[in-house]
């Protein structure tokens, strides 16, 4: 059995500290059900991805059941998934497996997150749990992230960005990337986000503004880091035969893979392993991709992900970003919805938001950021940090138009 996208929905990503998870979830769900042309009674299963609702707001358990109890979905089997920033892409993969197995024909996948908190330090502390806390100080010391102490940081500082900064410094030394190259990523993604009515940031930034923004953790400046925010995104997945009966455009899930850190140290990085598996499943080649979403938690992450996803050879990311190939109108547009830097990064919502963006591109409804003729797209989502500063979780999803 094959899996297709039946409908998508997304909220505006923003700092909305007074909004409940229930409100965010229902905004996205209502939109996705309308787009799918179905009602809550047609949904046979719900899978929610959320990372921090327990830590930040006290709802440690039954988050989907609480968020959706007044939505008309009460009584439907609900599964709650936590997998750091890859929570909702992991939820999406659970749904795909359920459809393929025949366990359900129509499944609602939801990613929702309230990362805002009255005490900003609390939000950063939540982010800092996406590591092995029992080995946190050893990891930070080993990679030279000497400021990465979650107990000692100021309210405006993210220990997780210290770890990203350490990886960025090593990557820059190896690749020859400069601070100006990092700024190119931020400028590109903010320009894309300015075309996305659901993005947290609705205005572009200049290269000069990026370089003048406050240093967070060398070499990462504020405008090179994804923001704290809130939001939700939902995807209705169904068997392809169900979508055909609905006479809806058929965007199929042709490949998906979820990997984790901790393999043999000689093995490829988690993203590269997930890519290999998803490409093998789909029969798609890198050259077939028309649009790509990657997990740009910080600007340099987009550069090393170009290489891990396979958009260029090792060391080729600098030439790729400088050439403009990954801009809208370029050879292979990346993060057309603004990425995490422009659209925002409410952790548990990000994976679904990436899939919504790719699906909308393939359905020809991305508005001013539409990639002309897009037929094949890829979403890559990461979660957590473990050994060698690699992702704890890597998810890859490949979608393609089916005629």
UniProtKB/TrEMBL annotation:
**Which InterPro entries does the entry mention?**
Thiolase (IPR002155), Thiolase-like (IPR016039), Thiolase_C_2 (IPR055140), Thiolase_N (IPR020616)
A matching Pfam family: Thiolase_N
The record's annotation in CDD domains points to:
SCP-x_thiolase
Q: Where is the Thiolase N-terminal domain?
A: 6-240
Report the SUPFAM superfamilies cross-referenced here.
Thiolase-like
Which GO molecular-function terms appear in the entry?
acyltransferase activity, transferring groups other than amino-acyl groups
* Domain Thiolase C-terminal: residue ranges: 262-388
Q: Which domain of life is it from?
A: Bacteria
Signal peptide residue numbers: none
* PANTHER family the UniProt entry points to: ACETYL-COA C-ACETYLTRANSFERASE, NON-SPECIFIC LIPID-TRANSFER PROTEIN-LIKE 2
This protein is called what?
A: Thiolase
Origin organism of this chain?
Nocardioides gansuensis
């Amino acid at each position: 059995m094959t899996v297709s996208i039946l409908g998508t929905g997304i909220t505006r990503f923003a700092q909305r500290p007074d909004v409940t998870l229930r409100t965010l979830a229902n905004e996205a769900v209502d939109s996705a059900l309308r787009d799918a042309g179905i009602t809550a009674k047609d949904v046979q299963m719900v899978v929610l991805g959320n990372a921090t609702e327990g830590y930040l707001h006290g709802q440690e358990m039954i988050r989907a059941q609480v968020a959706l109890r007044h939505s008309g979905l009460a009584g439907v089997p609900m599964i709650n998934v936590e997998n750091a920033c890859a929570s909702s892409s992991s939820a999406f993969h659970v749904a795909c497996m359920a459809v393929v197995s025949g366990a359900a024909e129509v499944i609602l996948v939801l990613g929702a997150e309230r990362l805002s908190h009255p005490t900003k330090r609390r939000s950063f502390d939540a982010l800092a749990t996406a590591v092995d806390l029992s080995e946190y100080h050893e990891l930070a010391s080993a990679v030279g992230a000497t400021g990465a102490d979650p107990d000692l940081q100021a309210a405006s500082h993210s220990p997780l960005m210290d770890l990203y900064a350490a990886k960025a410094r090593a990557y820059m030394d190896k690749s020859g990337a400069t601070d100006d190259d990092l700024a190119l990523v931020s400028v590109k993604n903010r320009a894309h986000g300015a075309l996305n009515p659901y993005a947290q940031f609705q205005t572009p930034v200049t290269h000069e503004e990026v370089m003048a923004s406050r240093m967070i953790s060398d070499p990462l400046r504020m405008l090179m880091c994804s923001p704290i925010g809130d939001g939700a995104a939902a995807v209705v997945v169904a068997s392809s035969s169900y979508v055909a009966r609905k006479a809806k455009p058929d965007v199929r899930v042709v490949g998906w893979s979820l990997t984790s850190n901790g393999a043999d140290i000689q093995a490829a990085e988690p993203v590269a392993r997930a890519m290999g598996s998803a490409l093998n499943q789909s029969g798609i080649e890198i050259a077939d991709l028309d649009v790509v979403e990657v997990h740009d938690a910080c600007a340099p992450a987009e550069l090393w992900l170009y290489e891990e996803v396979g958009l260029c050879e090792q060391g080729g990311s600098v030439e790729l970003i400088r050439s403009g190939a990954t801009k809208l109108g370029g050879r292979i547009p990346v993060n057309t919805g603004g990425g995490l830097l422009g659209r925002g990064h409410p952790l548990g919502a990000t994976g679904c938001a990436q899939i919504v963006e790719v699906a909308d591109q393939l359905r020809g409804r991305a508005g001013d950021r539409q990639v002309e003729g897009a037929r094949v797209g890829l979403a890559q989502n990461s979660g957590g940090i473990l050994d060698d500063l690699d992702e704890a979780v890597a998810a890859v999803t490949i979608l393609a138009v089916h005629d």
